[in-house]
Amino acid sequence: MSGSNSSPPSAAHALPAVADEPLGLTVHSMPSPRQALAGAEGRRTVQGRWKMIFVLLCCAAPVIASYFTYYVVRPEGRSVYGELIDPQRPLPNIEGTQPDGKTVRLPSLKGQWLLLSVADAACDALCEQQLYLQRQLRESLGREKDRLDRVWLVSDAQPLPERLANGLRGATVLRLPAAEIAKWLPASAGHVPAEHLFVVDPMGNLMMRFPARMDAGGASRGKRDLDRLLRASSSWDDAGR
Asked: Against a cut of 0.70, is the pTM above it?
């Protein structure tokens, strides 16, 4: 009969259609084993990188701290031994006389770092000690020593002792009136210029004074000051005038 031909489909025919959709969703929503493995590997890589960065930071922390302390905090241990002269004093435009009688204007000494000592021609024990330390300081600079000249300012017109000839080899010796020396080179309270060593920069400015009657221990600290000055000026100062 026509009624029996138009009856709805049986449950057996409808089941596959109903079951297809959940099966399809289950298969396509779950990652494949290869994708799961790649994801786990990626997470391990990221974690490994963070661990490496953490280890590197731990290792670098002391170095970073030391640089911060040295350049930012600037502890007392890094303070200079010599006394900075403020304001700086340029080389006076006066003439000095060399042992051979030739005259030299002081500004012509510009272009080099200068380490100055002062004494009269007789050169007593203090004078000899100053000249010795002056020479040793320059030699201790190693390959940088050619950027610094030794200058001895003689405050009278008396003959120079022969015993000093070897020690003064390579140094500039100039006679200047004692009054001119005292006017230009400032001594610390209670002392005279002959008790100090002075530093002049390549631009011709008197900029540092080492403590009076410096000994060997003081000279070692003075060398550190000279090292810092030479390093700080290495980008613009070359050996020779």
From this structure: no
Summarize pLDDT for 67-97 with one digit per residue, the tens.
344 344 444 445 789 999 989 899 999 999 9
Query: Which pair of structure tokens corresponds to residue 163?
Result: 């015993």
Rounded to whole angstroms, the Cα distance separating 199 from 114 reads: 6
- Check residue 101 and give left, alpha or beta (phi > 0: left; psi -120 to 50: alpha): left
Q: Which residues pair with 119 in a beta bridge?
A: 154
**Strand 198-200 relative to strand 113-119, pairing:** antiparallel
Lowest mean pLDDT among 56-65, 126-135, 226-235: 56-65
DSSP structure class, residue 214 = -
* Residue 52 CB neighbour total at 10 angstroms: 10
Do 184 and 206 contact (CB within 8 A), yes or no? yes
- Indicate if the pLDDT at residue 10 is higher than 50: no
Kindly give, in sequence order, each residue whose CB lies less than 8 Å from that of residue 146, ignoring residues fewer than 6 positions away.
Answer: 239, 240
Q: Is 196 helix (H, G, I), strand (E, B) or coil?
A: coil
Q: How, if at all, do strands 148-154 and 172-175 pair? A: parallel
- What is the DSSP-derived secondary structure letter of residue 165? T
Which of 195, 189, 191, 198 lies closest to 222, judged by CA? 198
- Tell me how far apart the alpha carbons of residues 171 and 136 are, in angstroms, rounded to a whole number: 12
Spatial separation of the C-alpha atoms in residues 159 and 66, rounded to whole Å: 54
